[in-house]
Structures
1.
Amino acid sequence: MKKEDCIFCKIANGEIPSTTIYEDEDFLCFLDVNPASRGHALIVPKEHYADLYEMDQELLKKAIVLAQKIGKEMKEKLGCDGLNLVQNNDEASGQTVFHFHLHLIPRYNNDGVGISWKPGSLTQEDKEELKALLTPGRPLE
Ligand code: AMP
Ligand code: ZN
């Protein structure tokens, strides 16, 4: 299913151009128009899923395998020194396009790309509280 007014659905439909580096029956991979680094690309399912929570589980497995394959290409062809996979969900995380996508961000030594955080500390209280809260008491779906 496509969603009207979704920019990535429009790219998947061919209504908006993209610099596509890979395509198969399920996915497109195209260059990000505002790249964090040289070669920054997005893996995008052709069908519309807003985010990770909605994403089809079989497609999700394919997406990570595709990231491995394209990541290897990037390492070989771009000679990048590292690779970040980034996947944002909801505004608070920085998601701006509400059609699932996986960022492949090639990294180069001292490139200054800011994917980092200030490390906090996990207190004993946090450990106990979070372990009790997050350990599932049922099979995960
Ligand atoms: P996010 O913040 O995770 O939702 O990432 C959305 C990404 O899509 C951003 O990095 C944008 O630069 C990128 N983007 C938005 N519109 C386009 C477009 N038409 N073609 C390629 N990349 C796009
Ligand atoms: Zn869409």
2.
Amino acid sequence: MTKIVVLTGAGVSAESGIPTFRASDGLWEGHRVEEVATPEGFRANPELVLDFYNQRRRKLLSPDVKPNAAHVALANWEASLPPSDFLLITQNVDNLHVRAGSKNVVPMHGELLKARCVDTGEVFPWLDDITLETPHPKRPDQLGRLRPHIVWFGEMPLEMEKIGEALIDCDCFVSIGTSGKVYPAAGFVQMTPTECWRVEINLNSSDNSQAFDDSFVGHATEQVPRFVDAWKKRYGS
Ligand code: OAD
């Protein structure tokens, strides 16, 4: 059997209607990254930052956002393998992989549908807006002590130990829909063993395309199922 690690980025959810981060104007839905995705930005203007993620959370919960064929192909692929042979690391904060049926998922940049206490770090499932008046779920007299459970620039991504252990031991590494601009995820391909089959799936070539053995160029909804078929042919399963 082969051990597989998949890394996904915003491109895998683009065809579900969730915009990617790096638009050509360098802005993330009209904002500079420093404004809405750093602890400093949150300290400077918490209302703006909370509202930014509130809008994203509402959109994710709207009926028009659904897992697409790429999410489904990854979930079906995982289901055909022993659980210990497959890890899906996602930089996305949406829940579309889990909704498609993926099981062994590490959301390394956090989850939009969770809130975190700024004082204690406790994490809570969260479907509503977060505001400066939101009561703490356990201590309702405390208001405005919650933030989105999102890893901002300058903060440590989640579950790095588990990720590192999977990367150094994998036979196949597939990077899907990520620009390769944000570390540490952009460096994962370099952590895989020399004999590992490294595959990139992207609409265009990314910043670290040269680190991969093969590339599948095009939309994730077409290329991910195509790649899974290629993997099955290669490994005869
Ligand atoms: P980016 O927006 O930087 O890159 C998206 C990538 O997806 C690009 O390389 C596109 O070419 C590709 N792409 C777009 N549509 C696609 C499609 N339909 N099929 C296949 N590929 C497609 O997003 P990420 O690389 O995920 O971090 O960004 C990494 C991190 O930077 C994010 O997790 C976020 C961000 O700032 C935090 O918020 C901490």
